[in-house]
Amino acid sequence: MAFTYRFAKEQDLSTIVEIENASMSCPWSLKSFQEAITSDHAFIMVAESEGQIAGYSVFYLTPPESELPDIVVDEKYRGQGLGRLLMEKSIQELESRGVDTVFLEVRVSNTPARALYEHIGFEEIGVRKYFYSNPVEDAVCMSLHI
Questions:
Q1: Which of 15, 21, 120, 131 has the fewest beta carbons under 10 Å from its own?
Q2: Any catalytic annotation for residue 77?
Q3: Of the residues 67, 93, 105, 137, which is catalytic?
Q4: Which residue segment(s) compose the domain that 43 sits in?
C-alpha cells in the first residue's frame, strides 16, 4: 500500500481525534491537537492512503531537541511498516529544522512501539515511575541522536 506524507490541516483534526480516541487509553483532546497544529514550535505529520489518514505523529520543537509526545497508526493500517515510515519522514523534517536529538516516553508494556523505536535507533535513557494512568504504568524514556 502506498502512503503519502504531509502536515496536518485543521480539517484533518476530527479524523485524527477519532483515531486517537480509538487507540489510546488516555487520548489527547481536540484542543491539544489544535494547539499543536497552530504552534510555531510543533508539527503534526500525517500519512495518507487513498485520501484516508492512516496515521500521524506529533512533535514539539526546541531545536536542537525535539519531543515525540504522540504517534498513532490507525488499527486497520497496522503491521505494514507505516509507523517506521512515518517516523523516518518526521525525522527528515526534524533534521531540516536543526534538530539533532529526539526524546520520547513509551509505556513499559507497549512492546511493538518499543521495538519500533529501538529499530530506528532510539536508546533507553531512564524510567519514569507511574508516568501513565489508565492503567498506571511506568514509562521508558528514550532518545535518538540523528
A1: 21
A2: no
A3: 105
A4: 4-145
Per-residue model confidence (pLDDT) at position 134:
86
pLDDT digits (tens, 9 = 90+) for 95-115: 999 999 999 999 999 999 999
Output the pLDDT for position 25: 87
CATH number at residue 23: 3.40.630.30
Catalytic, out of 18, 117, 124, 132: 117
Q: What is the pTM of this model?
A: 0.94
Q: Note if 48 is an active site residue.
A: no
pLDDT score for 1: 77
Contact by Cβ (8 Å): 122, 106: no
- Reported in sequence order, the residue ranges of 42-98 that DSSP labels E, i.e. its strands, are 42-49, 52-62, 65-73
Residues 6 or more apart in contact with residue 38 via CB below 8 angstroms: none
Domain total of the chain: 1
Amino acid at 82: L
Edge-to-edge order in the sheet of strand 101-107: 4-7, 42-49, 52-62, 65-73, 101-107, 137-145, 123-132
